[in-house]
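Same chain as my last thread, 192 residues:
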Amino acid sequence: MIGIDALDYGYFLKCRLKVLSTLFNTAYRGVVENELYMDTVASWKRVLNVGDENPLIRDPRIEFANIPLEEKKTIGKISIPYDKSIPLEKELEMVTEFVSSEIEEKALVVDITAIGRGAYDSICNAYEKIDSSLTKLLKKADNFLIMSPYGINPKGTRNKFGVFISTFPRPKEHETVKIEEVGKFFLTLIQP
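reply #2:
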């Protein structure tokens, strides 16, 4: 699973994105709906089912990197401050290196946080950089789930709708994917 914080369902297709546009037109897609969209940490806790009897964060089959489960930093094999101090390019380099080195070993959950952290110059420019890194991130993946827990428009306003793109159909094809369903759906992708 690749999280892209703040990838806005209503805006990202207006930018020149080769990979995401192709995936959007060829893979299963939908809208993530998140009532907790103003709180990144709470949103990711819902994705990973933190507080449930069997949260994803404790699943030994999954390796995590750069997940914003704390207010001031991300957690996992990659941990960065949740502020503007790490540029998008550096974050993408770290995430790509992690995925390349770990994808053969376990299922992965990684997040790209730069837009949510405000570490970007223009939203389309940030989307384009993320888009070009997706080729490397997805190269060795048999199955994938790309999702954003919320969107941010070019003016910086958050909204409750994110993106869901996967190699498998979403749980209820004609409905939005609730934020708490994302992690449960991901578990179905990694079942033997």
